């Protein structure tokens, strides 16, 4: 590209010529270093898959994830996952909240897994704690408390430290209580 043509392109895109750009760069003050923030930005970041979006594969991140579109594959994060749409695949997360959706796959969460009344899981759940009003067809392995609220259905075995069953919940399977 010739210098004249480059000047024309720069002027049409940015309103400056190459000579003016060089002059600005030479006279521009040097930027001061930005103070480092000790908080991890990864823990504050959110990966969002919007409604009507379609993704397949493995999603890995350190931050939080919210899925409102279609996702088929595995999710691996240390953060919190909010699932608002149907999904096929396994989820490994710090915590998980299923809202009005179905998951075909296994869940592994370091802390709390929550299922609302319209959520269904066809797979095993291993979690620090579980609070469910939804349906699970699979085994539960919960280190802390398992809360089965009204309308919750578990078709599988439960291993937990403590179990709270609200009237209207149903369990089809064995229950083993671990000692603290």
Structural features, described:
By secondary structure, the protein is mainly beta. The chain has 2 domains: 1-28, no CATH class; 46-177, no CATH class. It is built from 2 helices and 18 strands. It has helices at residues 3-14, 18-27, and strands at residues 46-49, 54-61, 64-67, 70-77, 80-83, 87-88, 91-93, 95-98, 102-104, 107-115, 120-122, 125-132, 135-137, 140-148, 153-155, 158-165, 170-172, 175-177. The chain has an 18-stranded parallel β-sheet that branches. The longest helix is centred in the first third of the chain and has 12 residues, at 3-14. It is elongated, with a radius of gyration of 25 Å. Mean pLDDT is 86; it is low at 24-43.
Summarize the structure.
This protein has 180 residues and is mostly beta strands.
Helix content: 10-25%
Provide the domain count. Answer: 2
Return the average pLDDT rounded to an integer: 86
How many strands appear in the DSSP assignment?
A: 18
User: What is the SS-derived class?
Assistant: mainly beta
Fraction in beta strands: over 45%
Largest sheet: 18 strands, parallel
Shape: elongated
Poorly predicted runs are: 24-43
One letter per element, helices H and strands E, the order comes to HHEEEEEEEEEEEEEEEEEE
Distance between the termini: 74 Å
Radius of gyration, whole Å: 25 Å
Number of helical regions: 2
């Amino acid at each position: 590209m010739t210098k004249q043509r480059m000047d024309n392109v720069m002027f049409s895109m940015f309103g400056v010529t190459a000579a003016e750009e060089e002059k600005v760069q030479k006279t521009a003050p040097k930027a001061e270093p930005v103070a480092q923030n000790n908080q991890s930005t990864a823990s504050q970041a959110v990966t969002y898959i919007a409604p009507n979006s379609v993704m397949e594969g493995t999603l890995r991140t350190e931050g939080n994830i919210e899925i409102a579109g279609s996702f088929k594959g595995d999710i691996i994060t240390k953060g919190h996952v909010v699932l608002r749409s149907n999904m096929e695949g396994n989820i490994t997360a710090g915590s998980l909240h299923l809202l009005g959706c179905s998951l075909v796959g296994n869940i592994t969460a370091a802390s709390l897994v929550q299922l609302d009344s319209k959520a269904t899981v066809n797979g095993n759940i291993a979690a620090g704690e579980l609070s469910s009003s939804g349906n699970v067809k699979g085994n539960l392995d919960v280190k802390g408390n398992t809360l089965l609220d009204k309308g919750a259905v578990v078709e599988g075995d439960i291993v937990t430290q403590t179990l709270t069953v609200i009237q209207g919940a149903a369990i089809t399977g064995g229950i083993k209580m671990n000692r603290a």
